[in-house]
């Protein structure tokens, strides 16, 4: 199996332990920043910046970011670690911000998104091979592309009907 996976894509760059740690640190910081901004976007009234809350509460955005993070990592193991760190930082910061702002946490949602973050290394490991060559690489890339096309279509239709519809009555 290892030989088959190496024929799809091989590790291209060997990083020192210090460089790996620094990379993981910046991925974690990016998750903290995005988690803070996502919660901030939820608290901004929709008439201040139209669509800001909609964009940052959109699942397709985070699927896209984690897919890019996994595909452009240096190895499948790094892709798995980076996706876990990014999503955990994002979820924990989002709910910590909620707790500080409102004084409570929706435990079911918190547990669900933590579960998603903890299983994210598996698809991230697989997605790393999507930048390789052959049918297996194409299949690895097809899943996030298909999901994003489905999400993107519904996102486009949402904005089309809410922003450009002239038959809305108030």
Structural descriptors:
170 residues, mainly alpha, 8 helices, transmembrane, membrane
Structural notes for this entry:
With 170 residues, this protein is an all-alpha fold. It has one domain. 22% of the residues are buried. This is Transporter. InterPro entries: DUF6518.
Instruction: Tell me how many strands there are.
Output: 0
Could you state the order of secondary-structure elements as H and E? HHHHHHHH
How large is the radius of gyration?
19 Å
Q: What is the terminal-to-terminal distance? A: 61 Å
Report a brief summary of the structure.
The chain is mostly helical and 170 residues long. It contains eight helices and no strands. Helix content is 75%, strand content 0%.
What does the secondary structure layout of this molecule look like, with pairings?
Blueprint: H1 2-8, H2 17-43, H3 52-56, H4 59-71, H5 76-102, H6 107-119, H7 121-127, H8 135-163
């Amino acid at each position: 199996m290892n030989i088959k996976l190496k024929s799809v894509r091989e590790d291209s760059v060997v990083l020192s332990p210090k460089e790996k740690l620094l990379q993981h640190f910046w991925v974690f910081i990016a998750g903290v920043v995005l988690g803070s901004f996502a919660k901030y976007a939820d608290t901004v009234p929709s008439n201040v910046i139209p669509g800001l809350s909609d964009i940052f509460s959109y699942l397709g955005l985070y699927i896209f970011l984690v897919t890019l993070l996994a595909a452009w990592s240096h190895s499948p193991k790094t892709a798995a670690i980076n996706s876990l760190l990014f999503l955990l930082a994002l979820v924990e910061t989002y709910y910590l911000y909620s707790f500080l702002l409102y004084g409570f946490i929706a435990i079911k949602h918190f547990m669900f998104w933590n579960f998603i973050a903890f299983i994210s290394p598996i698809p991230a490991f697989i997605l790393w091979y999507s930048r390789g060559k052959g049918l297996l690489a194409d299949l690895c890339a097809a899943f996030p592309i298909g999901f994003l096309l489905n999400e993107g279509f519904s996102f486009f239709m949402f904005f089309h009907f809410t922003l450009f519809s002239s038959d809305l009555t108030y």
